[in-house]
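Protocol step 4 of 5: obtain the predicted structure for the target chain.
Materials: sequence only (see below). No template structures provided, no constraints applied. The aim of this step is simply to have a reference model before the mutagenesis design in step 5. Sequence pasted as it appears in the construct record:
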Amino acid sequence: MNMDVSLILSNILNPPVLFFFLGMTAIFVKSDLEVPPPIPKLFSLYLLFAIGFKGGVELAKSGVNQEVLLTLAAAILMACAVPVYTFFILKLQLDPYNAAAIAATYGSISAVTFITASSFLEQLNVNFDGYMVAALALMESPAIIVGLILVNLSTSEEESDREFSWPEVLQEAFLNGAVFLLVGSLLVGVLTGERGWQVLSPFTQDMFYGVLTFFLLDMGLVAAKRIKDLKKIGVFLISFAILTPILNAGIGLLIARLIDMPEGDALLFSVLCASASYIAVPAAMRLTVPEANPSLYISTALAVTFPFNIIVGIPLYQYGINLLWS
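Step 4 output (structure tokens):
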């Protein structure tokens, strides 16, 4: 495979990614470095607000046309399809509860991976459209619903008296804090447009990469702490956590090529397809599928897939775009 090594080096030498490694290194060398718990929460809210608002402003500029609608439809399609086929792959080795929880995790997305990919594109001077943030928001929740439907269908004979509190499930899926802030910021961006962007630009633009860098430092600390759990999840799940993003990104790229997405949008779409949720979906699964083991679906997403995507996956998907779009 003649992949351009400079793409990987360009990604790794990005300051936010280097600080991710710094956080991991701190754990490996047993440094006492830690980030006080409220700060990562505050920074994650800031990042969701900033990308949502910027996406809304860009959407106001572009308007809703056929290209936007096709992209959003593709996003919903993948958010619903990925949990279904990954569930049957996982069922080869796991019980229905863990299979459904992990499948839902991989059907949803990682906003931080999306932001890191955006930073990668800016380094390459490749443009992308702001409405991709709307795709991000749309892909956050459907996997939770699909995962729960799979649990219901696959366990109905074993536990016919099992009942979900659907109002709680739907509230967690569509009104959890991350989704609510992201969609709300997107709408504010649409309503205020360029005027709103000029007002908030010092906060949403100038501070963005500093906050992202510090947030990834904390993610490195958290991911390194989770690595010890890899011994528990076994070779099958580690392989799944590496191969599934590549498969999902490949399908995403084919869809992107079919509907003629621009290259920058295609990379972000493939990254959304390839990423896995480690915040919203685990929170929902803990609430609704307590039979599933959280160490399985959190560790695969956070300790394997997330580092894989930000180190190797993003340049790999860009390489695929270079081949398909040339």
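Step 4 remarks: DSSP finds 15 helices and no strands in the chain. The chain has a mean pLDDT of 85.
Proceed to step 5.
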